[in-house]
Design brief:
Elements (H helix, E strand, L loop, with lengths): L1 H9 L7 H18 L6 H20 L3 H7 L2
Helix pairs in contact: 2-3
Length: about 70
């Protein structure tokens, strides 16, 4: 099951431009770094970390599942 999820995340043709990829990686790493700072609300820090990593992975792979789904509508 975990292998299927990993394949779903990393599979697919790149559908992001170079600019979109660079912005996603930069914002993702910035959000993840900000989430690593000690904060009183651990849930929001964890949520920010997940969002940041998601953006960084989106930029690194060049594939956005949301954009691919929107293109098929």
């Amino acid at each position: 099951m975990a292998n299927d999820m990993i394949n779903d995340i990393f599979s697919g043709q790149p559908n992001l431009s170079t600019t979109e990829r660079a912005v996603s990686v930069a914002l993702g790493l910035g959000i993840a770094a900000a989430a690593a700072q000690p904060r009183p609300n651990k849930i929001l820090s964890l949520l920010a970390l997940v969002v940041g990593v998601g953006l960084a992975v989106r930029g690194a792979t060049g594939h956005c599942a949301v954009k691919a789904a929107a293109d098929h509508l």
